[in-house]
């Protein structure tokens, strides 16, 4: 499937700010299951863009805007051909508990509870409800966890925050794709199964497109396989993968900080389109107009000047003495 | 614990009632004969009238106050600055002993830098299962996101402070490495200046190696790692600010090196470079000697609530447009949970046997060792792997049953976060206490620099536990310090 993705982000400030420093993870990956044929990133006001590959292999772009500015627009557009390999889950012979003594290093880094995927007593009932028996096939177990989370938690916006640990979704029973993915990762890691967080997009014909998050699970005889607890399914050709990490904090699509007293409002719109064939190389000059509405996703005051002297003093003291 | 008070005719004056327990004594052998390199000091001290000794001690205190040698004690309600108490009786290390220490430390830092380079790139040591990869990934100071990033000249730890102790037999043991932001070198330097004034004649009688060179040597290291081989780079020292307990040291070193002392807000990132705000506009910065923890260094990459860091700094570092000392993610090399593997690392990377021994260490993640730890909590020292400054410790012999039970629970719940070691009776050294000299426990922190080559300043910070019987030497826990004399020879023949 050939998909065109446009992801537009508006950052608006209540008054001009200076020294914005930001990095974005929006360039889709090229791997066995998809090919990023074209990627285009534009920032307004115009400023030089730099790029690096992070420790997971994700492509990161970063920029600074030092002079005063009251608005920033980030447009990421890509053409991705998805061609997921058939995943014969049914014949996977991996059983619980997994023996990881000889597993690849790349796998062992996705077993630890950290950041939002943290140990919490609230997780215990969920762990008890899905507890695998010895000898149970991992693939069955993963599908069961995916199904259970989908059935017992409600998809609802504005209940949890981008920085929410799994405690929030567990307590409220509601959350968004990010929370569902974190929850599934927490359950799998608790049972010694490597799981990682994926950010990307999902294309749904005739439905609103959106940024999406799901998780990938490692099966010794199948490698990493994507599962989407929000839709209770295995990942298909309608999923576009952008970045992966241990949890959301490793792959935040847009992360920034600025100087000034202003309040920041972030609005986003995403549009995906299935194409018949690959477009011309100059495709980014003729991108279709985005006619989907902007959604305000966040109001924050994550600026450097919003701190009291006492907070600064405390941090100065907080440094470890060696 | 038997106490033998030796009151031989030779041992009187200030040493009347001087007690040796099982610990090694730096000045005396078991028969209370001064060791050869202490002979002169011993005679001179004995010859001092009590009034004169008292005057010299007062001079020491006054000098420390005037030098402004302070440090800050955290976790206490009242005032912040406190004068770092210095004991006027110097600790002496003969040349032959120092040679072993020096070569052992060079071997160790060489290894730790190879380890960090390996860990953040190919991970051979994990692939070969010399260390269980899970230990690394569970380490709080391992920066997974920093993997694959190239650092200038492949050096991760440029400044290291390694703590050594001596066991009952006088053998030096490595207690821990400090590979993140080790402090204390300013005390080493000021202690020397003060002691030269307090005991000028005694000092002259010994061939003591100079330490004054340290700031210049440090600046050489910082310039060596400058981007693009710039021979005249702009170097700055980045401090958390005046409320940090080591602020005295930050300002002292910046002044001695003749570089700018800056806080995070003095720097700004633009065009993938770091700039310093000056009265004449922005000036490009090439090298940053940072004394801020990783977590607070860059709110864009690490803790977003940090007000001390420089947003975007890590990306500039990644791009090779600014150098940092020490590098990012070095904390995994001084993680106490990784410490027991350093001898294996030395064998793995250098194909050598460790020159300096380590303290026997039990790891609760190993089931058999966990039961040993739980059964011996009253004898062992239990440490939190990621704490420093003497916080988060249980000293078995000095603890209550309730404290032991509390640690048992913690160790069971989070085995990766703890290690346990036998209680080593740190060596003791004569220390001036109320007009007498009494034995007090000491450790030794030499400072190692890694630039074009690895050098160890011929000197060290000797920390002394001032309360009688205490084994905790940390400044934050009632410790003091001593000037440390590394001799050019073995000190046996003195003019």
Summed up, the helix count of chain B is 15
Oligomer: heterodimer
Broad structural category of chain B: alpha+beta
| Level-1 CATH class name of the largest domain in chain A | Mainly Beta
**Helical content of chain B (DSSP H or I, runs of 4+):** 25-40%
Cα-atom Rg of chain A, whole angstroms? Answer: 21 Å
Tertiary shape of chain A: globular
Give an overview in words.
The complex is a heterodimer of chains A (322) and B (495). In chain A, 19% of the residues lie in helices and 37% in strands. Chain A has helices at residues 105-108, 124-130, 138-152, 166-172, 177-190, 248-251, 309-318; strands at 2-24, 34-44, 50-53, 59-65, 69-82, 154-155, 174-175, 195-202, 210-219, 223-228, 233-234, 239-245, 254-259, 264-275, 295-300. In chain A, strands 1, 2, 3, 4, 5, 13, 14 and 15 form an eight-stranded antiparallel sheet that branches. In chain A, a hairpin with a 4-residue loop joins strand 10 and strand 11 (233-234). The model of chain A has no long low-confidence stretch (mean pLDDT 91). In chain B, a hairpin with a 2-residue loop joins strand 10 (267-270) and strand 11 (273-278). Mean pLDDT of chain B is 91; it is low at 1-10. The interface between A and B is large, with 39 and 55 residues.
Which keywords apply here?
heterodimer, A: 322 residues, alpha+beta, Immunoglobulin-like, C8orf32 fold, 2 domains, eight-stranded antiparallel sheet, five-stranded antiparallel sheet, globular, B: 495 residues, Rossmann fold, Dna Ligase, domain 1, five-stranded mixed sheet, 15 helices, 24 strands, 23% strand, disordered N terminus
List the helices and strands and how they pair.
The complex is a heterodimer of chains A (322) and B (495).
Chain A: E1 2-24, E2 34-44, E3 50-53, E4 59-65, E5 69-82, H1 105-108, H2 124-130, H3 138-152, E6 154-155, H4 166-172, E7 174-175, H5 177-190, E8 195-202, E9 210-219, E10 223-228, E11 233-234, E12 239-245, H6 248-251, E13 254-259, E14 264-275, E15 295-300, H7 309-318
Parallel strand pairs in A: 6-7
Antiparallel strand pairs in A: 1-4, 1-5, 1-13, 1-14, 2-5, 3-4, 8-9, 8-12, 9-10, 10-11, 14-15
Helix pairs in contact in A: 3-5, 4-5
Chain B: E1 4-5, E2 19-20, H1 39-46, H2 50-67, E3 70-72, E4 81-83, E5 86-93, H3 95-119, H4 124-127, H5 133-137, E6 159-166, E7 172-178, H6 185-198, H7 200-205, H8 214-224, E8 235-238, H9 247-257, E9 260-262, E10 267-270, E11 273-278, E12 281-285, E13 287-290, H10 294-297, H11 313-318, E14 323-325, H12 331-334, H13 342-350, E15 357-358, H14 367-375, E16 380-384, E17 393-395, H15 401-413, E18 418-422, E19 428-433, E20 436-445, E21 447-450, E22 454-456, E23 461-465, E24 479-486
Parallel strand pairs in B: 5-24, 7-15, 8-9, 8-13, 13-14
Antiparallel strand pairs in B: 1-2, 3-4, 6-7, 6-21, 10-11, 11-12, 16-17, 16-18, 19-20, 20-23, 21-22, 23-24
